[in-house]
Amino acid sequence: MSVSILGAGAFGTALAIALGRGGTPVTLWARNPETAKAMQESRENSARLPGANLPETVTVTAQFADTLGDTILLSVPMQTLRSLLHDHPELDRRTLVACCKGIELGTGLGPVAVIHEAAPNTTAAILTGPSFAADIARGLPTALTLACRDHDIGKSLQQSLITPNIRLYRTTDTTGAELGGALKNVMAIACGATIGAGLGESARAALMTRGYAEMNRMAAALGAQPDTLSGLSGFGDLTLTCTSEQSRNYRLGLSLGRGEEFDTSITVEGAATARATAARAAELKTDMPITAVVVALLDRRIGVSEALDTLLSRPLKEE
Ligand SMILES: NC(=O)c1ccc[n+]([C@@H]2O[C@H](COP(=O)([O-])OP(=O)(O)OC[C@H]3O[C@@H](n4cnc5c(N)ncnc54)[C@H](O)[C@@H]3O)[C@@H](O)[C@H]2O)c1
Ligand SMILES: O=P(O)(O)OC[C@H](O)CO
Questions:
Q1: pLDDT band at 211, cuts 50/70/90?
Q2: d(C-alpha 232, C-alpha 239), whole Å
Q3: I need a labelling partner for 66 at 20 to 30 A (CA). Which of 25, 144, 221, 284 fits?
Q4: What residues sit in the active site (predicted)?
Q5: What is the pLDDT of residue 48?
């Protein structure tokens, strides 16, 4: 069994290291030939995951034709997923596992739905849950969710993708799994802003809890199974991302709270996802006040204190 990983960023590289270390032959595709050559020679992704060595079982290439292994993981940022599929029609008719966390601008769709639209003859799955690339690459223990609507294919993917340090749980609820991974990024921006502005950890706990309620409302509106968000892909990842400075979404929030600039070259999925989700929530008439406030903060229409006032001045209601 071989695995191909498309996208040689931090997460694609970390997954390649974990799978390769477990003995699986992995082909890691970087779109830039110079990047692929440098990684293949130095055995390291010095730009995105410095200090983590690629095992011998991992081959890095920019030749797309070399990458059609038994299992294909798509580890690119959410807003580029459709163009990757569009540019490579040979991906259709295969089993594709999305590793990205986000909602597409313009369509309001998550990764599995985008794969189904752009490559209609594929079986799509998603690998999501609490995990920092650096932790995975260091061999630290992690537990993730593998969601695939096809029960048998999901079971076989679960077997193929476990590694000595990645334990996989399985579900058929792709809608719930992709929403959890996407929306926790929006909540992490809000929590980072709260801490960055010095509003305290009690305020963050309140935001995480109300954010979780908000995530569940959207999940229900889109037909996700009620329990999915209480698992690794929802609650688990919300907890990790809203409390760790390893998270890029949380760090963007910290910068907003402190009134500092943030490096725009860093992948922060929650920014586009907040906008896409706010638009979808309006269509579905679903109340998502924290998401709306995050969009206003990102657009610099309000500051953090005003954001908190907006949330605190909402009509009183039952929990
Ligand atoms: N880094 C983490 O800890 C982590 C953990 C879990 C999930 N994820 C998810 O993985 C996804 C990727 O994040 P990352 O951390 O690897 O980001 P990253 O910024 O480190 O890397 C993204 C990579 O995608 C490549 N890329 C962008 N557009 C592409 C395209 N059209 N075709 C091919 N390659 C393209 C870039 O060149 C870059 O190498 C995100 O959705 C993120 O939420 C990341
Ligand atoms: O660095 P972030 O904020 O993209 O978070 C990485 C992972 O999604 C955490 O599970």
A1: very high
A2: 9
A3: 144
A4: 184 (proton acceptor)
A5: 97
Q: Which residues, including other chains, have CB under 8 Å from residue 278's CB and lie 6 or more apart?
A: 288, 291, 292, 295
Query: Is 255 a known ligand-binding residue?
Result: no
Work out how many domains the chain is built from and give that number: 2
Place of tokens 């593998």: 146
248 CA → ligand 2 middle, Å = 6
The reply to whether ligand 2 has any atom less than 6 angstroms from the CB of 252 is no
As given in the structure block, the two tokens for residue 180 are 């959890």
In the chain, the amino acid numbered 242 is C
Residue 253 contacts residue 196 (beta carbons within 8 Å): yes
- End position of a domain, from candidates 172, 202, 235: 172
Cα of 317 vs centre of ligand 2, distance in Å, is 32
Active-site residue, 184 included = yes
Mean pLDDT to the nearest integer, 155-160: 97
Please check whether residue 177 lies inside any domain of the structure: no
Alpha-carbon distance of 246 to 149, in angstroms, equals 31
Looking at the fold, whether 106 and 156 belong to one and the same domain comes out as yes
Q: Which of 144, 172, 200 delimits the end of a domain?
A: 172
Predicted complex ipTM: 0.99
Q: Show the domain range for 204.
A: 183-313
| Cβ–Cβ < 8 Å for 248, 271 | no
Q: Answer whether residue 103 is part of any domain.
A: yes
State the ligand closest to the CA atom of 133.
Answer: 1
Closest C-alpha to 236, from 285, 293, 167: 167
Does residue 112 surpass a pLDDT of 80?
yes
pTM: 0.97
Tell me, in angstroms, the distance from the centre of ligand 2 to residue 316's CA: 33
Q: Which residues pair with 95 in a beta bridge?
A: 123
- Residue 226: predicted pLDDT: 85
**What is the sign, positive or negative, of the torsion defined by CA atoms of 58, 62, 68, 74?**
positive
Ligand 2 contacts CB of residue 191 (under 6 A): no
According to DSSP, the β-strands at 95-98 and 123-128 are parallel
- What CATH number corresponds to the domain at position 232? 1.10.1040.10
Proximal ligand: closest to the CA of 233: 2
Helix (H, G, I), strand (E, B) or coil at 144: strand
